[in-house]
Design a protein that fits this description.
CATH architecture of the largest domain: 3-Layer(aba) Sandwich
Shape: globular
Number of helices: 9
CATH superfamily of the largest domain: Methylesterase CheB, C-terminal domain
Strand order of the largest sheet: 3-4-2-1-7-8-9
Helix content: 25-40%
Low-confidence stretches: 189-206
Length: 327
């Protein structure tokens, strides 16, 4: 396997123009797959069509579980993180990273974990610093770290952050990137073969997760009453929790207060789901005559919301363990 068998590219503000310029300089025989994350949020995106029109390589929104294809550009779709798991693309509507979904860091970290030395990470124009931590992981595992010259970027924040925090292999103008990527994809920069690096257990626990993955442990426990951070202290054999506002709890009353707050939040979610079901039902009735296909879609959305409302209500009403101190 050539050193650069996969290329991951991240961009934000100014990224559409930069990506079109980059792919226009690639050849139709470009051998490596290209994975692209652009900060597009949940809005509909025409980026694959724009990239396909700009250059010779086919571009498409990634689909969950699809294989990674050489000579193709896989683009993260709206409102979904795109990562690599077991050699395939996985999509997730997991928590936002750096206020973005899709975000660059989850992709870069998964590429670093899966491909190690044969990965190339590229940071293009954008604000703030998404991608820096992921690019650091690629470099740490022996991959190649590339950033656009901040002076050449429409928005220099992201490439500047990468240059300041990562030992870059290349920092160059956008116009020079197609030639560099072609050389890296052809294996002209270091041909040593390398197996993907097996991550440490601690890294697995903190790796990007597809939906249903484990939660990370919270860095703090907050007050059920006001949301402030709680500090624990021992008063004899009793553990006490108190916040800076003055709310305080023993462990047992804390457990009850937490449950009460959790139940209120979950019942609010049930109410929102029920209201969504009613809203979608009203829209189904409103469009029934003029647009029957659209009406059917509204009906399906209503049924889905109602089904999830019932499931959540049943979850709330199940018995919960309530720890109590021995009498």
């Amino acid at each position: 396997m050539a050193r650069s068998s996969i290329i991951a590219i991240g961009a934000s503000a100014g990224g559409v123009s930069a990506l079109r310029s980059l792919v226009s300089g690639l050849s139709e025989t470009f051998p490596a797959p290209i994975l692209v994350v652009l900060h597009i949020g949940a809005q509909p995106s025409e980026l694959p069509r724009l990239l396909s029109a700009a250059g010779p390589l086919p571009a498409e929104h990634a689909e969950d579980g699809q294989p990674i294809l050489p000579g193709h550009i896989h683009v993260a779709p709206p409102d979904r993180h795109m990562i690599v798991v077991d050699g395939r693309l996985r999509l997730s509507r997991g928590p936002k990273v750096n206020c973005a979904r899709p975000a660059i860091d989850p992709l870069f970290r998964s590429v670093a974990e899966s491909f190690g030395r044969v990965a190339v990470g590229v940071i293009l124009t954008g604000n703030l610093n998404d991608g820096t931590l992921g690019l650091f992981e690629i470099a740490r595992r022996g991959g190649i770290a590339v950033a656009q010259d901040p002076n050449d970027a429409a928005y220099p924040g992201m490439p500047k952050s990468a240059a300041e925090h990562v030992a870059l292999d290349y920092c160059l103008c956008l116009a020079d990137m197609p030639e560099l990527l072609a050389e890296l994809a052809a294996g002209k920069e270091g041909k040593e073969e390398a197996m993907p690096i097996r991550p440490l257990q601690s890294e697995i626990e903190h790796a990007p997760q597809i939906e249903g993955g484990p939660f990370e442990r919270p860095t703090a426990i907050t007050c059920p009453e006001c949301g402030g951070a709680l500090r624990s202290s021992a008063v004899g054999p009793i553990t006490k929790f108190g916040c800076h506002i003055g709310h305080s709890y023993t462990a047992e009353t804390m457990a009850l207060a937490q449950f009460d707050k959790m139940e209120r939040v979950m019942r609010s979610a049930v109410r929102f789901l029920n209201e969504r079901a009613e809203f979608c039902l009203q829209m189904a009735e409103h469009t029934y005559t003029a647009e029957p296909c659209l009406s059917a879609s509204w009906q399906a959305a209503s049924r889905q919301a109602l089904d999830r409302a019932y499931k959540l209500r049943n979850l709330v009403e199940q018995d919960w363990i309530t720890p109590e101190a021995a009498g």
